[in-house]
Amino acid sequence: MGLLVLTGVVSLGWWMVRDPVSEFVTSEPGMDNRGAGAVIADIDIGAYFESMKVVESSLQESWPRFRGASYDNICRSPIPLIESFPKEGPRIKWKVEMGEGYAAAAIYKGFVYVLDYDETERADVLRCFSLEEGTELWRRGYYINLKRNHGMSRTIPAVSDDYVVTIGPRNHVMCVRRQDGAFVWGLNVEKEFKSEIPQWYSGQCPLIDRNRAIIATGGSALVVAVDLASGDILWETPNEQQWLVSHSSIMPFEFQGTNMYVYSASGGVCGIAADGPEEGTILWETRAWNHLVVAPSPVCLPDGKIFLTAGYGAGSMVLQLSKSGSGFSVDVLQEYAPREGLACEQQTPVVFEGHLLGILPKDAGPLRNQLVCVHPDDFTKVIWSSGSDKRFGLGPYMIADNKLFIVNDDATLTIARPGTSKYIELDSYRVLEDGRDAWGPIAVADGYLIMRDATTMVCLDMARER
Amino acid sequence: MEKKDKGYNRRDFINNGIRLALGATVAGTAAFTLSRSATGKDYVWQIDPFKCTQCGRCATECVRSESAVKCVHAFDLCGYCDVCSGYLKPGAKLETGAENQLCPTAAIQRKYIEEPYFEYIIDEELCIGCGKCVKGCSAFGNGSLHLQIRHDLCLNCNQCSIAASCPSDAISRVPADEPYLIKGDFTKGEEKG
Predict the structure, then answer these.
(1) Which of A51, A177, A335, A353 is the most buried (most CB within 10 A)?
(2) How does strand A207-209 pair with strand A212-216?
(3) What is the share, in percent, of chain A residues with pLDDT greater than 70?
(4) Is residue B24 domain-resident?
(5) Is A128 helix (H, G, I), strand (E, B) or coil?
(6) Which residues are within 8 A (CB) of B138 and not within 5 positions of it... i.e. 6 or more apart?
């Protein structure tokens, strides 16, 4: 009996003293030994230059920036384009090797501009080609040591009659003279505004509006306007909420007589006065849309709806902008998960006859990776989808000559008829045999279509007659 | 009464039965051995990572506790990103706090390598094969995280209970001399090396 009591007492003591979770390890912040971040380098922007050839061009059409002249990814050229490929495939005018990435072309009156990363020279270089021949004419850039981080390059230059403005992977802004690549000015955003580089490098495409470049900086200012001729900062939008720059690009929007720049930052979304006495000040803002990684740009609709979307499970949000007295107010109309309606991870949807068209992400359930068209009054109402046998990836899509051009990850180019009742595919062809990560947006001008995959840019002659 | 000689009594019946059973056993064993030596193949169960839909049943349907299914990492496919959708919950902070981690057992170790790279290592002792990380990695990343049946843990049941419940028919028998279906090229590289 005594032994039993003794055993019980010892067991109870052991049970009370023993720590059953002594081998547990708590997961706390900082266990990954994250570094302090890269040292901000002094970069001599514009130091690199190479001139190869001088040619003239009589072509007049342009695709001067990300999403084209009207910021809507619709080409309004009257030149008829093919709606099916010849048996041997599309007419390839030229092909050029690129540094690994997703940077895409802008076209201006017969010349192609693309900010590439030259892996041999270790330099961001703005390359100028002739549109018709693909001949490289000049390169302007700066030496910078970049590590591969899902590619290196990922932006599109903005081009005006006189200037080309670029934003590099580490937020170096460069302005050059369009005709010959002469260096005009540079801006090291990370250094000057003490801002952070977005994950996987900057995806923001610059905006040229009148005589100024509009750049989202993050850090000590949210957005700045830079005079194209002098490089002087004309105004800075205060960044009181310390929002970070995203991959999204600034979209101009005219709403009820007020011109504004709509920017979807990492932290929130806002409208900034684009002209008048309040130019550069925030007209409205909301933190309701706040995601770490935002790549698509806002889609602003004439009735004041603003469609916002992002990947990584974020889904989408629809804001309703209203004029209230002398100011603006903004309300959340819809917010939903990717499987509940239109959502996009990388590309920005296109508006066709008031309807939004876009490719759903992988986490969109049964409609994943399909092109869908949603109802203009309810972006969760899918009117049509491309079908389970026609899925796409993260590649771009745009409209030209009333045809929808869609690039799949493997550089397959699909031509479809845009519509609001059903998906009508016309033809498709794999343009680059070993194509991969063909995510750079399409540019179309004068009947030529420029697309790319991770390492090759290709110019297709898509004109029905030439 | 004259005793009738049946010529085939109960003892003979039992003796013959035993001989027949022994003979059948020997013949069967011989046939089995011959058939194996003819094909030279043993087979084991394995997951095809390209068919797997990360339903989560691998964690619960295996006869073993914990499951013989573990997450493996094809480092040659990984982007070594700071934002890792296989490690972090959607919208989580970019740090190692438990509240940010997708893995319910903290089986993925995240280590800073150099700007901007982070390495993700699976602690198989902790991994329960739930596939949550694989789902995240497949949806937004390069798909470098994927599930495999570990043959040091698998009992190689005649009928794999996970295979029976797999909704995407991702589990099948594969030759035992190539027992893993690893994504990427790094295992082939080892063989070459």
Answers:
(1) A335
(2) antiparallel
(3) 100
(4) no
(5) strand
(6) A362, B54, B145, B146
Average pLDDT over residues B8-15: 78
Distance in angstroms (rounded) separating the CA atoms of residues B105 and A368: 29
Q: Mean pLDDT, chain A, as a whole number?
A: 96
Identify whether the C-beta of residue A347 lies closer than 8 Å to the C-beta of residue A334. no
Distant-in-sequence, close-in-space partners of A140: CB < 8 Å, separation ≥ 6: A46, A48, A49, A125, A126, A174, A176, A181, A182, A183
Cβ-based contacts of B138 with chain A (< 8 Å): 362
Distance from CA of B63 to the nearest CA of A (A): 26
DSSP states of B102-138 as a string? S-TT--EEEEEEETTEEEEEE-TTT-----HHHHHHH
**For A98-153, what is each residue's pLDDT tens digit?**
999 999 999 999 999 999 999 999 999 999 999 999 999 999 999 999 999 999 99
Q: Which range, A361-365, A451-455, B183-187, is most confident?
A: A451-455
What are the boundaries of each domain within chain A? 42-461
The Cα–Cα gap between A175 and A212 comes to 11
pTM exceeding the 0.90 threshold for the entire prediction: no
> How far is residue A404 CA from its own chain's centroid?
19
CATH number for domain A42-461, candidates 1.20.1560.10, 3.40.50.740, 2.130.10.10, 2.10.109.10: 2.130.10.10
Chain B residues with CB inside 8 Å of A33's CB? 111-112
End-to-end CA distance of chain B: 89
Alpha-carbon gap: B90 to the closest alpha carbon of chain A (Å):
6
By the CB < 8 Å criterion, does A145 face chain B? Answer: no
Q: Does A366 touch chain B (CB under 8 A)?
A: no
Is B20 domain-assigned? no
Residue that the structure tokens 């384009």 belong to: A81
B91 touches chain A (CB under 8 A): yes
Q: What ipTM, to 2 d.p.?
A: 0.82
**Would an 8 Å CB–CB cutoff place A436 in contact with chain B?**
no
Token pair of A245, please?
């720059």
In a domain? residue B167: yes
Structure tokens at A86: 């010849």
The helix/strand/coil state of A450 is strand
Residues 6+ apart with CB under 8 A from A123: A48, A117, A141, A142, A143, A144
Q: Which residue has the tokens 């992002």?
A: A310
pLDDT computed for residue A297 by the predictor: 98
